[in-house]
Design a protein that fits this description.
The complex is a heterodimer of chains A (268) and B (165).
Chain A lengths: L4 E3 L4 H10 L3 E4 L5 H6 L7 E4 L9 E4 L2 E5 L4 H6 L1 H6 L1 H8 L4 H6 L2 H7 L6 H7 L3 E4 L3 E3 H4 E3 L2 E2 L7 E7 L3 E8 L6 E10 L2 E7 L6 E2 L1 H9 L24 H22 L2
Parallel strand pairs in A: 1-3, 2-3
Antiparallel strand pairs in A: 4-5, 5-10, 6-7, 6-10, 8-9, 11-12, 12-13, 13-14
Chain B lengths: L3 E3 L4 E8 L2 E8 L4 H8 L18 E4 L2 E4 L12 E3 L12 H8 L9 H14 L5 H7 L11 H15 L1
Parallel strand pairs in B: 2-6
Antiparallel strand pairs in B: 1-2, 2-3, 4-5, 4-6
Helix pairs in contact in B: 2-5
Classes of the chains: A alpha+beta (268), B alpha+beta (165).
Chain lengths: 268, 165
């Protein structure tokens, strides 16, 4: 790995200042994507700004109708947290399906969301639950946050502090995962929310996206049958050695129906 | 007490405990935990397999949780408790999980075994009564190219039983 300088700021303001001081800086949260990318020479930051000492990014709060989770909460913590399991079990289950045990013990919510890998799991949950991303500068709606391939609305010196998830009436995440990488070939998060039904798809395109046709059909009938026959165009979907765009398009319909079925059985 | 001390030339002095021993050592900021363990502390039981966080051979415990040491910066372990495969036996007295791997023939070449054992320990801490499905699911971050996993699963089942006694 190329050498870099390293700092461990004690406040979010200091971390932002460190980013401003060196434009080639990168934040490191759990490092589960960043460190392999650096070792493979895909990126070469001059400085790593380590967020692990920032208490402001930790913890979990419950208020009427939402669960707010600190950006540095690790996947294993979200998966096993009793409040998350009670109020948004689909989110806890999603966290339990990320990567493998060792990745879940290091990887964080904020890291995953800020990286916006096209096959990451969390972006689907944020989109489907109409989550709010609270940053060092402002609050951003999930619908405005995920911009494209590894691209978000975050400014160069902006840090995700916590994420507020409104509690849905019922929800489920179903993932068709690649057996070796454990990334989603297609993952679908469906939610029945106060704002209406939501269907968010990850793994299939350059960035997480919602399927308005399915959401509209579900608004009168939240059942797998309601979206029967709603096809997904393969035009903008990923095609690689793991799956063709046509196959992914087919999977979205199948996985979405399974997720709806699961949400109906599970509640919450 | 400060557990990191920044030096010149991108080096850091860190303090941590490794297998219950206090350790103070100088590392580069880019040094990985796997390299600290193997090259600085000479604990060669932790294996570097793929070096890209895929095979799990380098799995150790950081504050009692399994992590891939090739995917954690050594500076991150400052102030933490690290346990490697050398830290789970007492002298020549093997840990029940190691005994089970031997009894069940849960290894052939042995390269993946230290990581497999450290992962399985974390699994048994959280799930003292696992079934076969859960073991296969929870060990999916550790690759073995010899055994076909069958005897590894048997070993974890046997160890779970002997640890419950």
């Amino acid at each position: 790995m190329h050498p870099f300088s390293y700092c461990q700021p004690r406040s979010v303001a200091d971390a932002c200042a460190a980013l401003r001081a060196d434009s080639e800086s990168k934040l490191i949260a759990g490092g589960q994507t960043l460190l392999p990318s650096m070792r493979l020479r895909l990126i070469r930051p001059s400085q790593l700004v380590d967020l692990s000492l920032l208490e402001e990014l930790r913890g979990l709060e419950l208020d009427s109708g939402s669960v707010t989770i600190g950006a540095m909460m690790r996947h294993a913590e979200v998966a096993s947290d009793l409040q998350v399991r009670r109020h948004i079990p689909a989110l806890a289950e999603l966290a339990s399906m990320i990567g493998d045990r060792m990745v879940r013990n290091m990887g964080t919510l904020g890291g995953s969301v800020s990286n916006n890998d096209p096959a990451a799991d969390y972006p689907a949950a944020l989109q489907a639950l109409d989550a709010q991303i609270i940053t060092s500068l402002r609050t951003i709606r999930a619908a405005d946050f995920f911009k494209g391939l590894f691209e978000t609305a975050l400014a160069a010196d902006e840090i995700v502090v916590r994420i507020r998830f409104p509690v849905p009436r019922r929800a489920a995440y179903v993932k068709f995962r690649h057996p070796a990488s454990r990334f989603a070939l297609v993952g679908v998060f469906v939610a029945d929310t106060v704002m209406g039904p939501r269907v968010a798809v990850t793994g299939a395109g350059a960035c997480v996206f919602r399927v308005p046709e399915m959401e509209e059909a579900l608004s009168t009938d939240f059942s797998p049958e309601a979206i029967e026959g709603i096809g997904i165009a393969a035009d903008n979907l990923n095609s690689d050695l793991h799956a063709s765009a046509d196959y992914r398009a087919h999977l979205i319909s199948v996985i979405a129906r399974r997720a709806i079925q699961r949400a109906r059985m599970a509640g919450g | 007490m400060a557990v990191t001390l920044r030096g010149e030339d991108m080096t850091v002095t860190i303090q941590l405990t490794v297998n219950d021993q206090d350790v103070s050592t100088v590392v580069e900021e880019r040094t990985l935990l796997a390299d600290l363990i193997r090259d600085h502390l000479n604990l060669r039981g932790t294996h570097r397999g793929c070096d890209t966080a895929q095979c799990g051979a380098c799995t150790v415990h950081l504050n009692d949780e399994a992590v891939k040491s090739c995917n954690v910066l050594a500076v991150r372990a400052a102030g933490c408790r690290v346990t490697t495969i050398e830290g789970i036996s007492r002298g020549t007295q093997l840990h029940p999980l190691q005994i089970a791997f031997r009894e069940c023939h849960g290894l052939q070449c042995g390269f993946c075994t230290p990581g497999m054992v450290m992962s399985a320990l974390d699994l048994l801490r959280l799930h003292p009564e696992p079934d076969e499905t859960l073991i296969r699911e929870q060990l999916d971050g550790n690759l073995c190219r010899c055994t076909g996993y069958e005897n590894i699963v048997n070993a974890v089942l046997m160890a779970a039983q002997s640890l419950r006694k």
